[in-house]
Design a protein that fits this description.
- The chain has 379 residues and is α+β, with helices and mostly antiparallel strands.
- It has a 6-stranded antiparallel β-barrel with strand order 3-4-5-10-7-6. The protein has a 4-stranded antiparallel β-sheet with strand order 2-11-13-12.
- The longest helix has 20 residues.
Amino acid sequence: MIGKFILKFLTILLIKVFALISLPVGADRLKDLTSIAGVRTNQLVGYGIVVGLAGTGDGNIGLTLQSMQSMVSRFGLATDVKGLDGKNTAAVMVTGELAAFGKPGQHMNVTVSTLGKAKSLRGGTLLMTPLLGADGETYAVAQGNLVVGGLGVEGGDGSSLTVNIPTVGRIPRGATIEKMVDNPFIGSSNVILNLHQGDFSTALSISEAINDIFGDNVAVPLDASSIKVRSPKDPSQKVAFVSLLENIEVEPSRPAAKVVVNARTGTIVIGGDVRVTPAAVTHGSLTVKIDEKKNVTATGGAVVNENQVVTTPGDAVVTPETDIEVEEEPAKAFVFDPGVSLSTIVDTINAVGAGASDLVAILEALRESGALRAELIII
């Protein structure tokens, strides 16, 4: 039985090697184009306290003092909140990602962030903190010394200096996994591949490439984003099958033509397949400058005595003055021929000296006129 499986495995491997010889240069591996349904990380979060800070903690705020009292009571000690000082303690939130196949006893990294008024976590130690999943179950426990990349100091005169973010730290391998998340990958007779970017043509190409290597009807496209692949149910055979599957190379189809504009930063990304139908564009700019001035004139009177003249001060008179200037640059016109490409669009607009804001206005006008053969996305 084992010999037959090894022979079948080698046969499939040889078929795959010969199939890869004729692949196009722009082909990508399936592991770069897709993800396996159910194989994902899980977010964990927990609340804890960090101790051992050098006076940079939360201070005497209620949340931290209650947490300290609760922690001390676990060891059979009774204390009053009024007798605690939280200047060396900080209330924190602990976050981490549980790997898809994380097993009990393995370790994971965690990030620790302040929740109260703590100014720095440098030199602190996180006490035992349970990490919960979305279902409220405990999947890991975190504890350890923090690694903080930031620095914050204060002077006696109130001056301060902050480098990076001292209120966030990490504990490499600081959490121990206590419970494994059930994964549908084990025991299933199918593998679902989900495309990172849904596309009907790419989904069809992937299913055809899989069927060319493993046989007809092994892969079936479900929609633009998913392909169902029939796989062995035995775990050992399934791992070998997926190992071959994710290294199959396919040339993805060219994406739809898009123009992405960030109106806040002026960043514009134009896809290579963007085309423009015949259109004439005239674009100019109008600048209005308003300058407000206030003229102050002093008033007063003169009193004449026998030997001298005395000037008496009066109220100041404020006279507003407004200057309005209008500058209009001459409009520049250019014509797009039928089906011009990306390089032509960029060269033409740069030739007339249009800036980022001008380019956004031109693209929006082309879209409204129907001349822009692409989807315009403004973020």
